[in-house]
Amino acid sequence: MVGSMAGLLAQSGIESEVRNDILGGASGEIAPGETWVELWVLETSQVASAREIILASLKQPEDGDWQCGRCDEANPGSFEICWNCGIPGNG
User: Same domain, yes or no, for 21 and 53?
Assistant: First the structure.
């Protein structure tokens, strides 16, 4: 999910960095707080915008699944482009 949020921010022109994404395997070996995946916004001036973008995306109701008009593949409603052929929307 954190990777998806980083991609969402990148689409909006906000640079971010995912940290601790490989520490999940160390759970139980080191302190729990040390293994949490973190999303860092690189420009302090963009933190408020990043927060708004992420919160808005979490509040969006999930649309129904859709069929691509180009390749006829089924796509989850949360996909904006076809996973198979990359065509935006409903084909």
Answer: yes
Which has the closest alpha carbon to 82: 57, 65, 63?
65
Q: How far apart are CA 4 and CA 11, in angstroms?
A: 11
Same domain for 9 and 46?
A: yes
Distances (CA, A) of 90 to 8, 57, 59, 62: 20, 19, 22, 15
Encode pLDDT of 1-50 as tens digits. 888 899 999 999 999 999 888 766 666 677 766 768 899 999 999 999 99
The answer to whether the beta carbons of residues 55 and 66 sit under 8 Å apart is no
Q: Do 31 and 68 lie in a common domain?
A: no
Q: Is 89 left (phi over 0), alpha (psi -120 to 50) or beta?
A: left
Print the domain residue range for 31.
Answer: 2-60
Angle at 31 between CA 50 and CA 51, to 5 degrees: 10
